[in-house]
Amino acid sequence: QSVLTQPPSVSGAPGQRVTISCTGSSSNIGAGYDVHWYQQLPGTAPKLLIYGNSNRPSGVPDRFSGSKSGTSASLAITGLQAEDEADYYCQSYDSRPYVFGSGTKVTVL
Amino acid sequence: EVQLVQSGAEVKKPGESLRISCKGSGFSFTRNWISWVRQMPGKGLEWMGRIDPSDSYTNYSPSFQGHVTVSADKSISTAYLKWSSLKASDTAMYYCARHSGYDFPLDYWGQGTLVTVSS
Known about the structure:
By secondary structure, chain A is mostly beta strands. In chain A, 0% of the residues lie in helices and 43% in strands.
């Protein structure tokens, strides 16, 4: 059972906006630690998508955005494209000391 | 170009030992930390442990403490993940990843090493 909770799946039609939630607690996200997001395309290694709650590494399209509030964080994908079909994971710092979310599969209809 | 190149796939029997590697290039190996992440078949990501190659200080997840050992040889910019006695439940893909400190993201990842443990 993951420390950070994500919905197992979300879906949307091309061009739509989808959001993925990441719910933690006062020992991780709520303690002020940053949330990072990773995209894992089928059969490949994870790739950093969002760091420090809302920052995009060079080369990541601005269709991807992140936010954080209280003990939760969110990843939004606007203008959904077929190539966005992947698994997405949030990650933060905790006593363990690093924890990942349970992962969310994004399906493009 | 920052790269983390991992060793190839392994097939082992229960009880055998194994060490897999992760070689870094294109960055200062001793100014970054290396973490190891497990992904069991069809499952999510699990953080296992990390090392600071500059002084070989390590942290482990309680779930993996005592079952694996993380080490590094800074002279050849390589980190290692070792098992002394494999179990069938160790069958998984293992990734190494770089980060700059405790609250920094895992910004570069290796390609993964598939470990299969079967009798």
